[in-house]
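Anyone able to model this chain together with zinc ion?
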Amino acid sequence: MSILTALAALALWLTLLALLTFTLLAAYRVSLKRHPYTDCRRCKGTGERRSRLFAHTFGYCPDCVGTGHKLRAGARLLNVR
Ligand SMILES: [Zn+2]
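re: yes, here you go
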């Protein structure tokens, strides 16, 4: 194999890789736009914080302020709203 064919093959592979990466990123961005929120991990999406001492009492979850959902990391980092 000559050096030119090797370079051509390399260029082809890099182009395909770039296209694949771009497609995946675009799909991720669409997903972020359509579903920007995820369940709050601390309260598992309930929005409430249960007392350990009195099982029937609860307060609002301080992480999600009682909403039960949080902005996804990608949406926060890429500023997708
Ligand atoms: Zn929460």
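Residues 40, 42-43, 47, 61, 63-64, 68 surround zinc ion (CB under 6 Å).
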